[in-house]
Design goal:
Helices cover 21% and strands 20% of the residues. The protein is an alpha+beta fold and 80 residues long. It comes from Sinanodonta woodiana (Chinese pond mussel).
């Protein structure tokens, strides 16, 4: 047990994912999407990430409020 009362096995299951490394090439891009409220816009963003082989894409003017994360059906993770 940890001081927080969690079992050690639970903590071992959570492993950080390395996105940026000095041993690999990471492609980063930005895109002014103007709004993410349009139907299919998330799928379009994911398709463009694959098209340009981007690991990280910064999106401006998304017009989403709050902060959350969503996993798309194609596997991409959106953090906002």
């Amino acid at each position: 047990m940890t001081p927080d009362g969690e079992s050690q096995s639970h903590l071992e299951d959570v492993r950080p994912t390395t996105i940026v490394s000095t041993r690999t090439t990471t492609t980063i891009g930005t895109w002014n999407v103007r709004t993410m409220y349009e139907t299919g816009k998330s799928a379009q963003v994911a398709a463009e990430m694959r098209r340009y082989n981007l690991t990280i894409l910064g999106i401006s003017e998304a017009r989403w409020t709050g902060s959350e994360q969503k996993r798309l059906a194609t596997g991409e993770l959106l953090l906002y």
